[in-house]
Amino acid sequence: MFILKSSNSISQIARLRSPKFRQTGSNCTLSFWYYNYGQSVGAAELQLLVDGLEQPTVLWRTYYNEGNQWLRAVIQLGRLPHPFQFSLDKISLGVYEGVSAIDDVRFENCALPPPALSCEGPNHFWCRDTKACIDNLLVCDLVDDCGDGSDEDSCDPDLQCNFENGLCNWEQDVQDDFDWVRIQGPTPTVNTGPLKDHTTGTARGHYLYLESSEPRQFRDKAVLLSPLFNPAAYGTCVFRFHYHMFGKEVYKLSVFQRTVSNAKGWLLWYKFGNQENRWIRQTLFISSSKPFQILVKGIVGDGFTGDIGLDDVSFLGCTLYNGYLPTISTTTSGTSVPATLPMNNCTEKEFVCQASGHCIQMIQKCDFRPDCSDKSDESACAMEVCDFEDKDLCGWHQPALEQISGNYSIVVTKTFNWQLGRGANLYPEEEQHCPLTDHTMCTEEGWYLFADSSNGEFGDTADIVTPVISLTGPRCKIIFWNHMNGSTIGSLEVLYKSSNKTSKLWTQSGSQGPQWNRAEVFLGIRSNFQVIFRAKRGVSYMGDVAVDDITFEDCFPLLISDKPCTSEEFMCANKYCIPKNNLCDFVNDCEDNSDESPSI
Questions:
Q1: How far is residue 204's CA from residue 186's CA, in Å, rounded to a whole number?
Q2: Cα angle: 40, vertex 45, 46; to 5 degrees
Q3: pLDDT given for residue 591 in this prediction
Q4: Would you name any one GO CC term (predicted)?
Q5: Which pLDDT tens digit goes with each residue over 414-444?
Q6: Do strands 181-184 and 29-37 pair parallel, antiparallel, or not at all (unpaired)?
Q7: What's the pLDDT tens digit per position in 236-285?
Q8: How confident is the model at residue 376, as a pLDDT?
């Protein structure tokens, strides 16, 4: 079927009507091939006309010239219980130069399930009037799969929500960036989001959606909270929902489960990227030994064509919990109450060993050499080796986040900062610019430290620093592994900070390839200083800087021995003994430079 030009009138409409259909089953789809070619060919749209509804529902649109080719359109109809027909409308632009055509119209899976002679077993449901035998997981899911409504009879309204009359007993999270929006019909932006809801399959029905246009920014998140549920054994509690993820810049939809009210919970399921213009059903089996809550989190993509829809959420075999989830303390180990010190005669300028009460000089605290028998002088200091396994930061901290939140364990959204990460937590396509495996374990389960470039803006910096290091020896150096891969990598710097003076020791910028690279930075003799790792964000999120296995090697200061130097050693002017092999090697091994004196 094709359209011929009949006049040059502006906004001419050619309309093709289908026969009337009585009803469809829940899995019904319509497909056809179309041709829309020419400089000013104009738009076309397919409308659904349902008996009893004045407002038509737009099912499909094409706006412009799509080239000299046939293209296939697939439209999800779903369950339509009332008589309906289709109207295919073609609009002329007046100066009509182009051809529009349609061919091979096909309906698939549109019949109701057939009647069955028997329907036995706990996993099946026998429909009352149609006598169809359907899967038990389709019961009380807000979809009339039987065709007579019997699978949706006697359902607990507190365990399901189609958003036709609000959010039911679900709630918007107040800790996220924005809220889910309840809407009818298409979302405001073309080429993204649903055109209709899932419950009714028409523009009359309501659903929730995540708006990705301004003022929303990349990685803004909207979280929806379920009611609370009693503990459930595996297989007894089922969560069903329908989601819609259509658009070139759709990002992520995730489902989490939590048993603590102020925690993010653990990931049950996620979907990433464009899933085409259709509603998709998802079933999750929930188990928990404690009362729990479900969180549905949508995250905005890097553009306005990233709307996400949610509809027909339901639970089967779950029971509501009449209480509250507990909270956990957000206090970190670094803010614990100081231990009671033993009796001692130490001055204010000395450090008290916690076990013995022995006094040592303050310069001996945090110098990579344990001088107390219990090593308490090195307990809150930079660790010689840090591999970040067991999610341990080894004393490294972020001063900028402490100023914002008062507690660096709280992730400050929108801020370019350092975070612990691992390959197992990556979403698809993130492995292109973030390590898939750590360096320590070479597995997806191993942890590393990375600066998350999905937050912040171009040129932002993120610092992570050591505690104050009192003193280092002449051969001290930092060895670490870095991962800098991605099209918009910024830079990584290692800095030295003492009092108010900060100087650069090492820097690297740009993509270095998809592997871990070794780096070595010489420190030598320094006192009362901190080491800073500084990441600078590139022009976009496609480039995370990561580090792993940070080692302070040979950093302990020299000791003054009670014994005289041996024949193989040289006595420095300050009474230190060093190997004679270290003389005149351009390294200040003595700390007073006497081993490099021309008079030796």
A1: 10
A2: 150
A3: 72
A4: membrane
A5: 688 999 988 877 766 676 778 889 998 888 8
A6: unpaired
A7: 899 999 999 999 889 889 999 999 988 888 888 888 889 999 999 999 99
A8: 85
* Chain centroid, CA 153 distance in Å: 38
Report the C-alpha gap between 192 and 215 in whole angstroms.
Answer: 17
Tell the burial category of 283 from Cβ atoms under 10 Å away from its Cβ (0-12, 13-18, 19+).
Answer: middle
d(CA 179, CA 91): 37
Domains by residue range for the chain, with CATH: 11-108 (2.60.120.200), 157-316 (2.60.120.200), 348-380 (4.10.400), 382-553 (2.60.120.200), 561-599 (4.10.400.10)
Q: Are 366 and 468 in contact (CB under 8 A)?
A: yes
Phi-psi region of 568 (alpha: psi -120 to 50; beta: other; left: phi over 0): alpha
- Angle of CA points 593, 598, 600, to nearest 5°: 85
- The per-residue DSSP string of 90-154 comes to EE--SS---EEEEEEEEEES-SPPPB-S---STTEEE-TTT-BEEEGGGTTSSS--SSSSGGGTT
Cα end-to-end span (Å), the chain: 101
Report pLDDT digits (tens) over 21-66. 999 999 999 999 999 888 777 788 999 999 999 999 999 988 778 8
The residue assigned the tokens 């990561």 is 546
Judged by phi (left if over 0) then psi (alpha if -120 to 50, else beta), residue 41 lies in alpha
Cα angle vertex 198, ends 196, 202, to 5°? 40
Task: Say if residues 304 and 189 touch (Cβ distance below 8 Å).
Answer: yes
CB contact set of 154 (below 8 Å; sequence gap of 6+): none
pTM: 0.61
